[in-house]
């Protein structure tokens, strides 16, 4: 199977949200993401994606909950585990900027074998890691 899976990447991750505009505002204003798509699909549905401003990493598809089964998962898509990892090249800078913008950190920064990390919550309570990976060497 030469070539199979050679040129693929995880490009988009769906995140169930309560409200498109509220979620856009939070990710853009608090995390510094950019709005990459906002397409009306009709019937109240939209294709809304945000991504880190530098264009690196996967986009988030902000998917407004449709029905009770999706609505009850808002803020807890992973059963209380950290769901997403926001990688940075300067933990101290980004941690301070996020605190100044009102991002709720659930713990103090800590140093692990893999890097500097702290857990924060998004507007719905999904848990994220802000992480500066330890560089080789």
Structure description:
The model has no long low-confidence stretch (mean pLDDT 95). It is globular, with a radius of gyration of 16 Å. The chain has helices at residues 20-31, 68-71, 91-100, and strands at residues 12-17, 34-42, 45-51, 59-64, 82-87, 104-105, 110-112, 115-121, 127-133. Strands 5, 6, 7, 8 and 9 form a five-stranded mixed sheet that branches. Strands 1-4-3-2 form a four-stranded mixed sheet, with helices on one face. The chain contains three helices and nine strands. The protein has 137 residues and is of the alpha+beta class. The termini are far apart.
Q: What would the principal axes of the Cα set say about the shape?
A: globular
**Could you give the order of the helices and strands?**
EHEEEHEHEEEE
**Spatial gap, N to C terminus:** 36 Å
Count the DSSP helices: 3
- Uncertain parts: none
What class, by secondary structure content?
alpha+beta
Total beta strands: 9
- How much of the residues is beta strand, in percent? 35-45%
In this structure, how is the largest beta sheet organized? Answer: 5 strands, mixed
* Overall pLDDT confidence: 95
Tell me the helix content.
10-25%
Rg (C-alpha, Å): 16 Å
Label this structure with key terms.
137 residues; alpha+beta; four-stranded mixed β-sheet; 3 helices
Layout of helices and strands:
Layout (H helix, E strand, L loop, with lengths): L11 E6 L2 H12 L2 E9 L2 E7 L7 E6 L3 H4 L10 E6 L3 H10 L3 E2 L4 E3 L2 E7 L5 E7 L4
């Amino acid at each position: 199977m030469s070539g199979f899976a050679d040129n693929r990447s995880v490009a988009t991750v769906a995140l169930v949200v309560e409200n498109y505009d509220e979620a856009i505002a939070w990710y853009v204003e608090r995390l510094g993401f950019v709005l990459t798509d906002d397409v009306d699909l009709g019937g109240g549905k939209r294709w809304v994606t945000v991504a880190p401003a530098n264009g690196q990493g996967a986009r988030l598809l902000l998917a407004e909950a449709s029905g009770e089964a999706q609505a009850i998962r808002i803020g807890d898509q992973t059963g209380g585990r950290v769901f997403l990892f926001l990688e940075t090249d300067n933990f101290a800078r980004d941690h301070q900027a996020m605190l100044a913008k009102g991002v709720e950190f659930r713990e103090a920064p800590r140093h692990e074998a893999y890097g500097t990390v702290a857990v924060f919550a998004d507007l719905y309570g999904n848990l994220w890691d802000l992480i500066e990976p330890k560089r080789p060497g």
